[in-house]
């Protein structure tokens, strides 16, 4: 394969992954296309749009900075516009991203990161909700 056909294949892989992310309902924005591609994906907990709820809601934007050699060289990931991130949650997410990076050198890297980030946010919301309920129950016992 010559370098031109590798570039076309890499672009096809990226486009396929962007399409899959969009089909899953994640908002994506191309921030920059030249000289390197930067993609922003908004990831939020499942309850994020339920503004009437008192349950905790978590969200962020994942910024993927691609290399010319994607998927052989994986993109850099950064978290921006974090909403309601508990202490240490970003660190846990970055650790999980490193784990996925080690395991997943294939064409579904971005999709794996995005879906795992959403899963982690939903788990964190459930954990925070349990803590909030336990605190409220303890306060009710103190009042009685």
UniProtKB/TrEMBL annotation:
Residue ranges constituting the RWD domain according to the UniProt record:
4-124
Q: Which Gene3D superfamilies match?
A: Ubiquitin Conjugating Enzyme
The organism sits in which domain of life? Eukaryota
**By which gene is this protein encoded?**
LOC6898909
| Organism lineage | Eukaryota, Metazoa, Ecdysozoa, Arthropoda, Hexapoda
- Protein's name in the database: EIF-2-alpha kinase GCN2-like
Spell out the Pfam families in the cross-references. Answer: RWD
Question: Record's PROSITE patterns?
Answer: RWD
